[in-house]
Specification:
This protein is of the alpha+beta class. Strands 1, 3, 4, 5, 6, 9, 13, 14, 15 and 16 form a ten-stranded mixed beta sheet that branches. The chain has a two-stranded antiparallel sheet with strand order 2-10. Strands 7-8 form a two-stranded antiparallel ribbon. It contains seven helices and 16 strands. Helices cover 24% and strands 27% of the residues. The chain has one domain: L-amino peptidase D-ALA esterase/amidase (4-Layer Sandwich).
């Protein structure tokens, strides 16, 4: 059976929707998340680490023809999971959403880049992984309200530094009023906990209290995580960006990731960050003002990515042998 998870309460940035398909029935622990932009969005990407699993990322190079992306797929299943993008493409084609390649409305090619995390066999059955049906279900669950977080979608089978990882979402607004958000599946070989203090690296605003001494002792024994990993995500904004500027925003997403996970970008990681700009809010005309606005977008993108990593870890629940942060350090989340 395929289960879907969608939504909570707050409206997302105009032009974007997020949908999850969660597969956590017996033998399964994986899933797919779709970041949808039905009207198209300017896309950029930055891929790092020694073991990426991606699809259509070359189209986001500033020198290529395509400028409108219609969805980004974040999924489990390692390279097998890239098949989830087939289901998303089929669903968008049925709605006549895509790059026009003919004179008729249905003659389109949806532009759907994708990236995967390694979560094979975490549910107990190696062959249980996302496919086209999973991607189609995530697309059908897409909504413009805030997505569910934790062990859902691409974060279902995620493990982060030896504890349960997950999917996280965070949003901020720049001084000029541009909205910036990040959607992240945290699945990290590196550590997410400061073993000296027991605090989460991603708690950049110190929103949680220090763990108790007993909790710190337990957390100090965590060490690293799985040998194969990868953290993937999307930064969204309503700003009007060029393809090169969108790629720069994707690039600084890795700065936000590096605050949350240490070490990062190893040979068994395929860390990938996309940027999608809905083009709803123009940048300032004055060159200096435009430069400062872009700099603020870059800073906001990095902050949102770190905060989304924090939300992914603190929202996740224990699954199988992987214990969640909320169970390892319950005193820190009791008052949230």
């Amino acid at each position: 059976m395929t289960s879907v998870a969608g939504t909570s309460l707050v409206t997302m940035i105009d032009g974007f929707e997020i949908g999850h398909c969660t597969r956590d029935e017996p033998g399964w622990l994986t899933g797919t998340t779709v970041v949808l932009c039905r009207d198209g969005a300017m896309g950029g990407v930055d891929v790092r680490g020694g073991g990426p699993g991606t699809r259509e990322t070359d189209l986001l190079d500033p020198v290529t023809m395509i400028e409108q992306v219609h969805a980004v797929v974040l999924t489990g299943g390692s390279a097998y999971g890239l098949a989830a993008a087939d289901g998303v493409m089929a669903g968008l084609e049925a709605e006549h959403i895509g790059f026009p390649v003919g004179s008729l409305a249905h003659q389109v090619v949806p532009i759907v880049p994708a990236a995967v995390i390694f979560d094979l066999n975490r549910g107990g059955e190696f062959a249980n992984r996302p496919d086209a049906e999973t991607g189609r279900a995530a697309l059908e669950a897409a909504t413009s309200t805030d997505p569910a977080q934790g062990c859902v979608g691409a974060g279902t089978g995620a493990v982060a530094g030896g504890i349960k990882g997950g999917f996280g979402y965070a949003e901020t607004v720049t001084a000029q009023g541009y909205r910036v958000a990040a959607a992240v599946a945290v699945n990290a070989a590196g550590g997410v906990v400061d073993l000296g203090t027991g605090r989460l690296h991603s708690d950049r605003t110190h929103s949680l209290p220090d763990p108790t001494e007993e909790e710190r002792t337990a957390l100090a024994g965590l060490g690293g995580g799985a040998s194969f990993a990868t953290t993937i995500g999307v930064i969204m904004t309503d700003a009007t960006l060029t393809k090169a500027q969108a790629s720069k925003v994707a690039q600084v997403g890795h700065d936000g990731m590096a605050r949350a996970i240490r070490p990062l970008h190893g040979m068994t990681d395929g860390d990938t960050v996309f940027c999608l700009a809905s083009q709803r809010k123009p940048l300032p005309d004055h060159p200096a003002e435009r430069l400062f606005a872009i700099n603020d977008l870059l800073a906001a993108g990095a902050d949102a990515f770190t905060d989304a990593c924090f939300n992914a870890i603190t929202s996740a629940g224990s699954r199988g042998e992987w214990v969640s942060w909320s169970d390892l350090a319950p005193s820190t989340v009791a008052l949230r």
